[in-house]
Specification:
The complex is a heterodimer of chains A (448) and B (262). By secondary structure, chain A is of the alpha+beta class. Chain A has helices at residues 51-56, 60-70, 88-91, 115-119, 127-146, 195-198, 206-222, 230-233, 240-249, 270-275, 281-291, 293-296, 304-316; strands spanning 10-11, 20-28, 32-39, 42-49, 82-84, 102-105, 113-114, 149-150, 159-162, 167-170, 177-178, 186-188, 319-320, 327-328, 351-354, 357-360, 366-367, 385-389, 397-401, 407-411, 416-419, 424-426, 430-435, 438-443. Chain A folds into three domains: 10-105, Phosphorylase Kinase, domain 1 (2-Layer Sandwich), CATH 3.30.200.20; 113-309, Transferase(Phosphotransferase), domain 1, CATH 1.10.510.10; 349-443, Tumour Suppressor Smad4 (Sandwich), CATH 2.60.200.20. By secondary structure, chain B is an alpha/beta fold. Chain B contains six helices and seven strands, in the order βαββαβααβαβαβ. Chain B has helices at residues 30-51, 94-105, 131-139, 142-146, 160-167, 207-226; strands at residues 11-20, 55-64, 68-77, 118-123, 148-154, 202-204, 231-232. Chain B has a six-stranded mixed β-sheet, with helices on both faces. Classes of the chains: A alpha+beta (448), B alpha/beta (262).
C-alpha cells in the first residue's frame, strides 16, 4: 500500500491546537485510506479521502459536518468526530496532487472482526451471539432512522462483530444523510441494494435501508444470500448484468412460499437449507415479509422495531438440546419439537414467567428490563439477571442477580431466601423470585 | 455451541498473469522489479480473497519469451501461492501465450459456473509471433470475452496498440487510436484524454508505479470481480464488471524524472 499520509508525518490541521502524528496506515480502499494517529496523547483513527472520491461526491464535507454535529445515534457506530483539513504548510506533506480532507473517529477496539469472517465460515460464534449481533444491528438502524437519518450503503464490508459477545460496530458512516434529502452520490452495494435502487427507480433512503438490513440479517443468520437459489445456478458467469437480473429485474426469495422458482440447491446452497429451519417462525415471517411483498413494495418491509422484537423473542426461546448441547429455538408452548442438529426430542424446559414475556431457563439466557415493563423497548445492554449452569454440575441451573439490589427467592416450601447482588440461586427448589423490577415465576415442567 | 459449520457457496475467480520474459526484461532490473511487485502483492491479494466469501480466488501465470509456457499451471488458491522468480531471455511469443490461456478458458477445463476471470498482461516490448491469431483464438472463448482484461506497459518501448487490442476498445476514447498519446503515422493529432483509465494500458515507467499497478490489479480489481463494491451514481457502467479507480497518483520525488530502475 502506498500511503498518501506517510507514517511519521506530523500534520497540522485547521482548528486543532496540537499536531496530528500519523502512526501507521491501517487500510485503504477506493474511497480513501485509514490511519492510526495520535492527537494530544490520544490514539484515534483518521480516514483520509482520495481526490477521485472527493471529486465524485461534492456534498461529502457538508454531510460529514452535519453528522459530526448530530453525534452518533448510539455506541454501535464508529461515528465521525471531527472533519480535518490540513493547514497550508502541512498540505505539502500529503503525497497527493490535492491535499484533500479527512475525518477523525475512534479506533476499532480489538476483538472485533469483519462480518465477512462469519459469513465466510472462518469464525466460531454461537447462534446466541449471531442473534444478538442481529439485534444490535436492527437496534442501531432503529436509532439512526428515529433521528431522521439513513445509512444508504450497509453491507458486510462495514459491519464488525465481537464473536464472544455478539456486540457490533458499524463503520464507514460517511454516507449517512438526512432521509429524503438531496441525493448523495452513493447508491449502495449490489446484493444489499433494494431492487428499486439497483434499477435506478429510487434513491437510497430509510426504506431501502430496511431492505439492506433484512439482507444483512439473513446473511448473518444463514451464511447465505436470500436471492441466490436455483435461478443463480442458471447463471454461468456471475457478472454485472447477471447480478442486475438476480437482485433487481427478477428477484425471488429462495424461501418464497408462493414462488418456488428459486429454491436453494441441496448441494450448492446447503448452508441456507441447514440454517433456515433453526429459527422461530416469528423471525422467518419477517424475512418473508421483506423479501416477498417487500421486494417490490418498499413500504411493506419489516421495520427495525419488528426485527428487534422478533430477535429478542428468539433469544428468549433459546433452549439447549440435552443430547448434543446445540442451541435450539422451539416455539413457546409447542411439544414434540426435536433438535435441528441431532433429532433428539426436546423435553419441556424450565421457564421463567415475567410480567411481560417468558424466558426459557437455559445457560446465558437473560432477563431484561423490557421483560418487566411493557412500556420499555427491547434492550439487551442492561440485563437484570442471567441463567447460569452450576460451575461443577452443569445439570443444576441457577439465576444470577445482576442488579445492585437484594432479591427474595420463594421456595416451594414457602421459605424465603435472600438473593444478594451478584449471587446465583439454584432454580430447582424455587417457585418465584420477588424483585424490585417485578415478580419472576419459575415454571417447572410437570409441576402444577 | 457454535454456529453450524456451513459457509456461503462460492464461485472460482481465475486470476491469470501473462508475463513478458523476453531478453529486454533482463535490462535495468525490469525482471526483478516484476518478480518483486508480484511477490509483494500476494499478502494483500490473500486478504481481499478472505474478505470476499463469495469468491475462491485461484491464481495462475504464463510466461512468454521464445515460447510461451505455464509458469504456474495449477489454479492455486492465493493464500498457498509461492511465487517462483521468472527469468528473462528470448523473444516475445505473446500470441502463443494468448493461445495457452485460450485453451484453459474453454469449458471444460473451465468450471460450469464462475466469476469473471481476470487476465493481466505485462509487457515491455513488441510481440514477435502472430499476436493477432493468438488474440482471435482467445476472444473466441466466452470466458475470455467476459474476463476483465488489464495490461501493464513496462517502460516506454511497449507496444501500446497491441496491449489496447488485448484490453478491447476503450469506450472513453471514442474509437481510433489506443493509449499513449502517440501521433499516428496517419498524421492524426494526438488525442488528449483526461487522466489514466484501466481500459487503457497502464504505463509503469518505474518500479514504484509497477508495484502500484500490480497491487491494484490483485486487490481492487479482484475485489470488484468477486464481490460488488459500493456503487455511486453516475459511475460509468461499461463492461460487465465496473472497474475500481486506479491507485491515486502519489507525488513521489521519483515521479516524472524518467526511468529510475531501467
Amino acid at each position: 500500500m502506498t500511503w498518501i499520509l506517510p507514517p511519521g508525518t506530523s500534520l497540522r490541521c485547521e482548528g486543532l491546537n496540537a499536531p496530528l502524528q500519523v502512526l501507521r496506515g491501517l487500510g485503504g480502499g477506493t474511497q480513501g485510506q485509514v490511519y492510526e494517529v495520535e492527537l494530544a496523547g490520544e490514539r484515534l483513527a483518521l480516514k483520509w479521502y482520495l481526490p477521485a472520491c472527493i471529486a465524485r461526491d461534492p456534498r461529502l464535507p457538508l454531510r460529514l459536518a452535519e453528522s459530526i454535529r448530530a453525534t452518533a445515534p448510539n455506541d454501535d457506530f464508529l461515528w465521525p468526530i471531527a472533519l480535518l483539513r490540513p493547514e497550508l504548510e502541512s498540505a505539502a506533506l500529503i503525497r497527493s496532487r490535492e491535499p484533500g480532507f479527512g475525518y477523525l473517529m475512534d479506533l476499532r477496539p480489538p476483538g472485533y472482526v469483519g462480518a465477512h469472517e462469519h459469513v465466510g465460515g472462518h469464525l466460531a460464534i454461537s447462534l446466541r451471539n449471531v442473534l444478538r449481533a442481529g439485534f444490535f444491528l436492527a437496534d442501531a438502524f432503529h436509532a439512526l432512522h428515529l433521528r431522521g437519518l439513513c445509512y444508504k450503503d450497509i453491507s458486510l464490508g462495514n459491519l464488525f462483530l465481537e464473536p464472544a459477545s455478539g456486540r457490533i460496530l458499524i463503520c464507514d458512516n460517511d454516507n449517512v444523510d438526512v432521509d429524503g434529502q438531496d441525493p448523495g452520490s452513493v447508491l449502495g452495494t449490489p446484493g444489499f441494494m433494494a431492487p428499486e435502487v439497483l434499477l435506478g427507480q429510487a434513491r437510497p433512503g430509510a426504506n431501502s435501508d430496511l431492505f439492506s438490513l433484512a439482507v444483512l440479517l439473513f446473511r448473518l443468520l444463514t451464511r447465505h444470500d436470500p436471492l441466490r437459489g436455483q435461478l443463480e445456478l442458471a447463471i454461468r458467469c456471475l457478472d454485472e448484468p447477471a447480478r442486475r437480473k438476480l437482485y433487481g429485474e427478477d428477484p425471488v426469495f429462495i424461501f418464497d412460499p408462493a414462488d418456488a422458482r428459486n429454491r436453494p440447491d441441496p448441494i450448492e446452497h446447503a448452508a441456507a437449507l441447514l440454517t433456515w429451519p433453526i429459527y422461530p417462525e416469528g423471525l422467518k415471517a419477517l424475512f418473508e415479509q421483506s423479501f416477498c411483498r417487500g421486494l417490490r413494495q418498499p413500504g411493506q418491509r419489516a421495520l427495525t422495531g419488528q426485527w428487534r422484537r422478533a430477535l429478542a423473542a428468539a433469544l428468549d426461546q433459546r433452549q439447549l438440546c440435552p443430547s448434543c448441547g446445540q442451541e435450539t429455538f422451539p416455539e413457546p408452548g409447542s411439544s414434540g419439537t426435536s433438535c435441528w442438529n441431532c433429532g433428539t426430542a426436546l423435553p419441556a424446559p424450565l421457564r421463567l414467567q415475567l410480567p411481560h414475556g417468558q424466558v426459557i431457563a437455559a445457560p446465558e439466557n437473560a432477563l431484561h428490563p423490557h421483560h418487566f415493563d411493557p412500556l420499555l423497548e427491547e434492550d439487551l445492554r442492561r440485563p437484570l439477571a442471567q441463567v447460569e449452569a452450576h460451575p461443577s454440575d452443569a445439570g443444576v441451573l441457577g439465576l444470577r442477580n445482576l442488579t445492585g439490589e437484594r432479591w427474595i427467592a420463594v421456595l416451594g416450601s414457602g421459605e424465603r431466601v435472600p438473593l444478594e447482588p451478584g449471587r446465583t440461586c439454584n432454580l430447582a427448589p424455587v417457585r418465584a423470585l420477588i424483585t424490585p423490577a417485578g415478580p419472576i415465576a419459575v415454571l417447572h415442567p410437570g409441576r402444577p | 455451541m457454535p454456529f453450524p459449520n456451513v459457509r456461503l457457496a462460492n464461485r472460482p475467480l481465475h486470476f491469470i498473469y501473462l508475463c513478458d520474459c523476453s531478453g529486454s526484461m533482463a535490462a535495468q532490473g525490469k525482471m526483478q522489479a516484476l518478480n518483486q511487485a508480484i511477490r509483494q502483492s500476494l499478502p494483500g491479494m490473500a486478504e481481499v480473497a478472505r474478505q470476499n466469501p463469495e469468491a475462491r480466488v485461484l491464481v495462475r501465470a504464463v510466461s512468454f519469451a521464445d515460447r510461451a509456457s505455464w509458469h504456474i499451471a495449477q489454479p492455486t488458491p492465493v493464500e498457498q501461492l509461492q511465487w517462483v522468480d521468472l527469468q528473462a531471455g528470448g523473444v516475445t511469443a505473446m500470441g502463443e501465450a494468448l493461445e495457452l490461456v485460450a485453451a484453459e478458458l474453454r469449458s471444460p477445463p473451465m468450471e460450469e459456473r464462475a466469476l469473471p476471470p481476470v487476465l493481466v498482461l505485462i509487457s515491455d516490448g513488441q510481440p514477435t509471433d502472430d499476436f493477432e491469431a493468438g488474440l482471435r483464438s482467445l476472444l473466441r472463448q466466452p470466458w475470455a470475452q467476459k474476463a476483465v482484461r488489464l495490461a501493464i506497459a513496462m517502460g516506454h518501448d511497449a507496444d501500446l496498440e497491441v496491449l489496447q487490442q488485448f484490453i478491447g476498445s476503450d469506450p472513453g476514447a471514442g474509437g481510433g487510436l489506443p493509449a499513449g498519446e502517440v501521433p499516428g503515422a496517419s498524421g492524426q493529432a494526438p488525442r488528449h484524454r483526461p487522466g489514466k483509465s484501466p481500459r487503457r494500458p497502464l504505463q509503469a515507467s518505474n518500479a514504484t508505479a509497477l508495484a502500484q499497478y500490480i497491487q491494484w490489479a490483485s486487490t481492487a480489481v479482484v475485489g470488484a470481480a468477486s464481490m460488488p463494491a459500493s456503487r455511486v451514481a453516475g459511475a460509468t457502467a461499461d463492461g460487465n464488471i465496473p472497474l475500481p479507480d486506479l491507485p491515486p497518483t502519489v507525488m513521489d520525488p521519483t515521479d516524472d524524472v524518467g526511468p529510475l530502475v531501467w
